[in-house]
Amino acid sequence: MTIQDVAKAAGVSPMTVSHVINDHPHVRTETRERVLRAIEELDYRVNVAARNLRTGRTGTIGLAVPEIDRPYYGQLAAEIIKVAAGHHLRVAIEQTGASREGELAALALSRNRLYDGLILSTVGLGPADTDLLRVDHPVVILGERIFDGPVDHVAMPNSAGARAATRHLLERGCRRVALIDGPQRGEVDVSSLRYDGYREALDEAGLPFDPALVAPIEQLTMERGAAAARRLAGSGAGFDGVFCVTDTVALGALRGLADSGLRVPDDVKVIGFDNIAEGAYSVPSLSSIDPDHALMAGTAVGFLVKRMAEKGAARQAPREFVSPFSLVARESTG
Amino acid sequence: MTIQDVAKAAGVSPMTVSHVINDHPHVRTETRERVLRAIEELDYRVNVAARNLRTGRTGTIGLAVPEIDRPYYGQLAAEIIKVAAGHHLRVAIEQTGASREGELAALALSRNRLYDGLILSTVGLGPADTDLLRVDHPVVILGERIFDGPVDHVAMPNSAGARAATRHLLERGCRRVALIDGPQRGEVDVSSLRYDGYREALDEAGLPFDPALVAPIEQLTMERGAAAARRLAGSGAGFDGVFCVTDTVALGALRGLADSGLRVPDDVKVIGFDNIAEGAYSVPSLSSIDPDHALMAGTAVGFLVKRMAEKGAARQAPREFVSPFSLVARESTG
DNA sequence: GCCACGTCCTGTATCGTCACCACGCCAGCA
DNA sequence: TGCTGGCGTGGTGACGATACAGGACGTGGC
Hints:
Two copies of one chain form a homodimer.
Chain A: H1 3-10, H2 14-21, H3 29-42, H4 48-55, E1 60-65, H5 71-86, E2 90-95, H6 100-111, E3 117-122, E4 139-143, E5 152-155, H7 158-171, E6 177-181, H8 190-204, E7 214-216, H9 222-235, E8 241-244, H10 247-259, E9 269-273, E10 287-291, H11 293-309, E11 320-322, E12 325-328
Parallel strand pairs in A: 1-2, 1-3, 3-4, 4-5, 5-11, 6-7, 6-8, 8-9, 9-10
Antiparallel strand pairs in A: 10-12
Chain A binds a DNA duplex (30 and 30 nucleotides) through helix 2 and helix 4.
């Protein structure tokens, strides 16, 4: 069942069938209809592989994220799939497991021309890997670990957001604000940047920084968030507010504080970062920093699409986009 | 940079390069190394499109789910991607938006030989669409809307699980158990089957069924779950337990009950279905029915892989698998 | 010396599509 | 009448890989 068969059945040349399929002009209405009828009758389907080979494009972009079952990435993926569909692009998802190797593997697949482009959410790759990104196919970095890299970059307002979050806790009357921070693996990862924002807000308010109020965790999961909160509560450090590096961690922290018999917001106020959907429905509901997810997804796909349209030579300079954000105050800082 | 260039550089035929790439035997170690060196030097990458065309396989399976940002589907996708990777398969995700059209679109893409197979989570397609599934390429249905269809099917233990959940509430002392139920669109969708289980458990316990205790919702979201719980609380129907059709709905319901000033589990006990990760960390933590997600994902991919290996003629009869389950009791039914 | 067999490698023929260019036709115009 | 130019259509030839058949060579048995 090839284009040839259709051509024969319709009494035209394969090229005419191709034109009909691809909505090219220069086909008489009558001919077009005859072709469409033949396609219908034979139940013909284009062979995407053959088309890919011929055109050099696959119509699919890759999206590499640490784990698709983390709410933030799920919500990100949903947005990106939606936006990509508007550009007639499909999205294949790779899970990198938050590891450098996983991220490199995704890059390799993209290099194999399996994808027309790649949106890579970096966690493991660092500035040292900048050269690995010097590739000749479209890549957009979504995340924070690489600045001034050779590729387009869509970033969160990490420091500014963290600063606003911490400031919000201070404005609500907190004086001893703890931080549940993620793994710091360089100078420009999420955790480090949000840590910076936290420090800045303290400085701004003229409050001292107390290392005993920082609880680092190795993974940005609810489980670790809960454990960190219990650790803080048990340490006797004394705190009346917590800024959590992500909402997922914050939801875990709410649980950990409940386990420790602390009431939110009466005893301790809590704020997160990302404004994932779940935060609006937790008990108490979670205050958070809300970057513009739709805008970020749209920008990332937009960058990629522009790159894909570029003719080899006329390469633009790498673009960078930092999302605006707002603060959503809910019960946890009430 | 084609296989020909590599062949020329290594002084062998393209076929020998192909053999090396694909780990075929009958290549002398020395030759193999020469080829590998040439590949390295030229930075050669196979062109996946060409390979796909020639072999007729793409190495990618499709996973069509309503929305990837719903925790259940995120966690499902994560499992499936992991299992598929073990079979050297990539996974492309389609969002069907829980609509019939979306599901048909995913089927169409699969028909275009874009995917080697498709795992389709049906919500919109019903028994009436059985014929549309009578396709000649591998499809596995994940979900409940089509029984006795012409394709493999991996299902949840819907009725049995719902019955166990309801019975659990009764055993904990509830006498007026409400149900927050999803949209019923036929006889074999998730909502209907779980509704059946709820009714069975009531009958078993000799308790009357009270329609005033059933709160139907149109979408299985936290938002709708919260609204339904508030509706129930405000209706004056009087209830001391709620079985929610999914955990996502149950998490919303916890929120709604809190809004209505009802305490869980003291005033009302709550149980969900799916055992999503978030349920372990909510306050209070959520009791749930726990199907074996990993087993379901493994089985679905396994079915698909077997189908993909089948030679056209020797088609096996459709298989069906219903996951076992266990009940996880947490604070919400404490 | 001859044949059979296994190993290692090669030549050729597609896979199904679309880009490119050519061509026939007709209207409009000088 | 002959020329131009746009429209509708077709012929040819890659795109880059692999399937298949088979050849060259070396080894061992008789």
